[in-house]
Amino acid sequence: MKIAELPTEEYIFPGNRSCAGCGAALAYRHALKALGPKTVVAIPAGCVTVIHGMYPRTSVNVPVIHTAFETTAACASGVVAGLEIQGRDDITVVGWSGDGGTVDIGIQALSGAAERNTNFIHVCYDNEAYMNTGTQRSGATPSGVRTSTTPGGGKVEHKKDMIMIMAAHRIPYIATACAAYPLDLYKKFVKARGIHGTKYIHILCPCPPGWGYEPEDTIAVGQAAVRSGMFNLFEIEEGKLRFSAPSRREPTYEIESYLEGQKRFRQFSGEQIEELRHWARDYRRQLSAMPN
Question: Which residue in 38, 82, 204, 233 is deepest, having the highest Cβ count within 10 Å?
Answer without folding.
Answer: 204
